[in-house]
Design a protein that fits this description.
- This protein is mainly α and about 180 residues long.
- Strand 1 and strand 2 form a beta hairpin.
- The termini are far apart.
- It comes from Tanacetum coccineum.
C-alpha cells in the first residue's frame, strides 16, 4: 500500500538508495550555510530561525529595549494608536532577539503608562476577572476617548437656547407682569 504512494510521488529512489539523501545543510547565499537540523517545516519558520541566528543580540540591546518598554508613557497629545504602536514595536524587537513579552505583561505596562484621564479605565482593566488582551486595548481606549469627548462637550441647555433666541427687551420677548 505504501509502495505505490512512494512510486507515484517519486520517493521510491530515496527508499531503495538509487537517489542519494539531500545534504543536511543548504546554501542560502554564497558563503552562508544554514543547518536543516532546526526542522523548519515552513518557509516562515525557516525565515524566523535565520533572523534569530543573524540578528545581532547583545545584552545592552536587550537592556535598552526592556527599559524602554518598562518606562513607556503616553506623551502630550500622542494618539492612542501611536502609543500602542510604540509598545508593540518594543515587544516585537524583544521577540526578535528571543525575549518574548507575555501579552498580560505588555497590557500591564501599557496601561500603567496612560495619562491620568484614563485612571478609571486603568482600574477597570486591572480589576477584571478575565485578562485583557493587548489586541483589545485599542478599542477600549478609543471607546473611553469617545465617552470623555461626550462628557466634556455638554449639550446646550434649554435656558441657553432660549436666551440666544430672545434678547431681553426685544419685541418678541414677553414682558413680565408686575403685581
Amino acid at each position: 500500500m505504501i509502495e505505490p504512494f512512494l512510486i507515484i510521488n517519486n520517493l521510491m529512489g530515496y527508499v531503495d538508495g538509487s537517489i542519494p539523501c539531500p545534504s543536511k545543510t543548504f546554501s542560502v547565499t554564497e558563503g552562508v550555510t544554514v543547518s536543516k537540523e532546526n526542522h523548519s517545516t515552513t518557509s516562515h519558520a525557516l525565515w524566523l530561525s535565520l533572523e534569530k541566528e543573524y540578528t545581532p543580540h547583545s545584552t545592552s540591546r536587550e537592556y535598552t529595549l526592556k527599559t524602554q518598554l518598562l518606562r513607556i508613557e503616553m506623551h502630550g497629545d500622542e494618539t492612542i494608536s501611536a502609543y500602542l504602536n510604540h509598545a508593540q514595536e518594543y515587544a516585537d524587537a524583544l521577540a526578535t532577539i528571543g525575549e518574548r513579552v507575555k501579552d498580560k505583561d505588555l497590557v500591564m505596562l501599557v496601561v500603567s503608562g496612560l495619562h491620568e484621564e484614563y485612571n478609571d479605565l486603568k482600574t477597570t482593566i486591572t480589576a477584571r476577572q478575565s485578562l485583557t488582551a493587548f489586541s483589545e486595548l485599542h478599542a477600549l481606549l478609543s471607546d473611553h476617548d469617545y465617552m470623555l469627548g461626550k462628557t466634556r462637550a455638554p449639550a446646550p441647555s434649554i435656558t441657553s437656547s432660549f436666551a440666544a433666541n430672545y434678547v431681553v427687551g426685544s419685541p418678541s420677548m414677553p414682558e413680565a407682569h408686575q403685581a
